[in-house]
Amino acid sequence: MLCSKFISNLILSLIVIILIIYILLPIYWLFITSFKIPIEYWTKTPTLFPSKFTLEHYYEIFNKGFLLNIFNTIFVCITASSIAILVGLPASYSLSRLKIANLFKNGMLTWILISRIIPPVVIVIPLYTTFKVFGLTNNLLGLSIAYEVYVLPFAIWTLMGFFKTIPKEIEEAALVDGANRITILIKILVPTILPGIIAVLIMGILTIWNEFLFAYVFLSESSKLTLPVVIAGLVTSEYGEIWGQLAAAGLISSVPMLLFTVYLQKYLILGFTTREIGKM
After folding, report:
1. What does DSSP assign to residue 65?
2. C-alpha Rg value of the chain to the nearest Å
3. Mind listing the pLDDT tens digit for each residue in 207-255?
4. How far apart are CA 88 and CA 202, in angstroms?
C-alpha cells in the first residue's frame, strides 16, 4: 500500500514538474534572448545561457519610443475599462432590477450577447468607417470607445449577475425612506458590489492589453501605437526578425500585466466568490 502511494505521488510530482517546465521554458527563453548578442540567437546550436550579456536590445527599443507606447496602452486600457463600468452599471442595473417588458429586455440581452460573440474582424471595417466620419480614427480616445465592443457586453452581463445577488428588500426599504433609483445605485448598490466592479475592471484591462486588430486598423502614427502593434512591427521590420528587440519588448510588455494580476488577484477571486455566495 505504501509503495503504491509513493509511486502515485512520484508520478504526480513528475507530471507537475514537467508542466511547470513546459510553462516556464518559453518565458526563460524570452528572458535570455533579450540579453544575447545577435550572433548567438542566429546560431544553429542555441545555448541555455548567454555567453555575453548585453542591454543593447533594451536601449534600442526605448530609443524608438517604446516607453510612450507603454503609456498609450495603459491609457487605452484604463479609459476603455472605465467607460465600460460607467455605462455598464446603469445598464445592468436597469436590466436586472427595473420593470421592463420581457420582449424588450430579452431582445436587449440577446443583442448584447450577439455583439460580443461576433468575430471582431467582421465589424472592424464598418466601425472604422463610422469612426472616420466623426474624426475618431488615429485617436487613442476613439480606440478606447471602439474597445467597448469587447468589454461593455462582458461588463453588463457580469454586473447583472452581481446585482441579482442583492436582496430586493434593501432597495424597497430605501425607496420607502424617500431615496430615488440613482441614489440607491450610487450609495447602496455600488459599494455592495465593489469587488465585482473591480473584477470587471481587471478583466477589461487584461482583455485590451493584448488586443491587436483594432489597434492596428485604427492607429497609424508611430507615437500613438499600442504595444501589440509595435511588437508585431519588430517581426516584420525592413531588417527582418529582430529577435533580441522582440524578446526585450515582449518581456517588458508582460511584466506590467503579471504584476497587475498578482497584486489584484485577491479582488478578482473575491468578486466572483461573492457572486457565487450570493446565489446560494
Report:
1. T
2. 24
3. 899 899 999 999 988 889 999 999 888 876 555 567 888 888 888 888 8
4. 15
Question: Domain coordinates of the chain in residue numbers?
Answer: 2-33, 56-279
How far lies 58's CA from each of 27, 54, 233, 236, 237, in Å? 17, 9, 16, 18, 17
Which uninterrupted H or E stretch holds 142?
A: helix 140-146
Whole-prediction pTM value? 0.83
* Torsion angle of the four alpha carbons 143, 146, 147, 148, in this order, in degrees rounded to the nearest 10: 140
Fold of 56-279: MetI-like fold (1.10.3720)
Cell 450570493 belongs to 278
Would you tell me the crossing angle of helices 66-97 and 102-117 to the nearest 10 degrees? Answer: 160
Q: Print the SS3 string covering 87-141.
A: HHHHHHHHHHHCCCCHHHHHHHHHHHHHHHHCCHHHHHHHHHHHHHHCCCCCCHH
Contact 251, 227 (CB under 8 A): no
SS3 237: strand
How far, in Å, CA of 122 to CA of 156, rounded? Answer: 22
Q: Do 198 and 82 touch, CB atoms closer than 8 A?
A: no
Three-class DSSP category at 55: coil
User: Hey, how many other C-beta atoms are within 10 angstroms of the C-beta on 33?
Assistant: 20
